[in-house]
Design goal:
With about 375 residues, this protein is α+β, with helices and mostly antiparallel strands. It is built from seven helices and eleven strands.
Length: about 375
């Protein structure tokens, strides 16, 4: 056999070998691209983190992973799972997923081979799978944090709403206990008939908030007669007011009621012991805003808070006060697109409510 023929055979064999290698690599690349595309589609499926291993396993298996094991704790509960066939002592890809002390998971992924490009592609898929898990856990914890924050906000509001309703029941029971003749009982019953629908609406709101999930869509706006709403809240608190003017605003009734309830409940206990002192309310109807001025007597029994602390949560000048009434009143009014300011005078504290004609909700 001549040298030229031998050289030709060597070149042909080398070419065939290179062709086989290229075909093998092309097959690996196609398989990897297919597996990678399937994994990335899972990111759009909004799966729970513990659902991801089962959902991702077909793509991982197709991409060169022989076995997947995981174990750990999920919010205190032990969890574990396995996919694929038993494997020898090959080097695994391993990583941990943690979130505070709530989630601690360990993953082991075994490739079909420990050598060459197949392991490199398998390692790349394992890295993508890890990113999917970390993203899902991060989204889970973010949603949980948001839910807990909303629950805390709701609890803060409900605490004061329940206090207001309990105070109304206490005042009503006290009035009945103090009524020693039929005429007095009739007067208390008439006040009860006037205030009962208002109290029932508050009770329904509390039940709805505690028994149902928070609505994702805010309640509809209502055209509200301010004079009627203010008088109802004052009667609910058992205090006397003087108000003549009226105006209409387009608001969420719940937010306005919460503002007024918290304003009046903040001073109701003391004002009920001073029947000679009344709250004066003025309403100014302007082009784009309605301004309500509520003038409340300053009583000697109330410690004098500095102006900058009036709306500070948990700062209270009233004995036994939670320091949340004015804070929640202002927050509720701002959620309705308005605002609440206060001015301290020598004998009065004046609250100035600015109400929009149309509502822009703040988040």
């Amino acid at each position: 056999m001549t040298p030229y023929l031998i050289l030709s055979l060597i070149l042909v064999a080398t070419g065939l070998a290179l062709l086989a290698v290229v075909a093998y690599l092309a097959r690996l690349v196609r398989r990897h691209r297919r597996s990678l595309s399937t994994l990335l589609k899972l990111a759009k499926d909004d799966l729970e983190p513990l659902q991801l291993p089962a959902a991702a396993w077909p793509a991982l298996s197709d991409g060169g992973i022989k076995r997947l094991d995981f174990s750990g704790r999920w919010f205190g509960q032990p969890v574990q799972g396995s996919f694929g066939t038993a494997t020898d002592a090959s080097r695994p890809f391993h990583f941990k997923i943690t979130a505070n002390d709530d989630i601690r998971l360990t993953f082991h992924l075994y490739a079909r081979t420990d050598r060459g490009e197949a392991r490199l592609f398998a390692e790349n898929l394992a890295g993508v799978f890890r990113l999917l898990l970390e993203t899902a856990v991060h989204s889970k914890m973010q949603a949980l944090s948001a839910a807990l924050a909303e629950q805390a906000r709701l609890t803060l509001y409900l605490q004061h709403d329940l206090r207001n309703l309990a105070q109304w029941v206490e005042w009503l029971a006290g009035d009945f206990a103090d009524a020693h003749d039929d005429a007095a009982l009739l007067g208390v019953a008439q006040r009860l008939r006037t205030g009962a629908p208002h109290a029932a609406a508050r009770a329904r709101h509390i039940l709805d908030a505690t028994c149902k999930r928070c609505a994702t869509v805010p309640p509809g706006l209502q055209m509200i007669a301010l004079r009627e709403a203010i008088v109802q809240s004052a009667e609910h608190a058992g205090i006397a007011i003087t108000i003549v003017q009226d105006a209409f605003v387009l608001l969420q009734r719940e937010l306005l009621n919460r503002t007024l309830d918290n304003l009046f409940a903040n001073v109701a206990t003391l004002l009920r012991s001073h029947p000679d002192r009344r709250i004066a309310v003025d309403i100014a109807d302007e082009a784009e805003k309605v301004h309500v001025r509520i003038q409340i007597p300053r009583l000697a029994e109330v410690a004098q808070l500095p102006p900058e602390k009036l709306f500070e949560p948990f700062a209270s000048g009233r004995p036994g006060g939670l320091g949340l009434g004015l804070y929640q009143a202002r927050k509720s009014l701002r959620e309705a697109g308005g605002d609440l300011l206060a001015e301290l005078q020598q004998d009065n504290i004046v609250f100035m409510l600015s109400l929009p004609r149309t509502q822009t909700l703040t988040v």
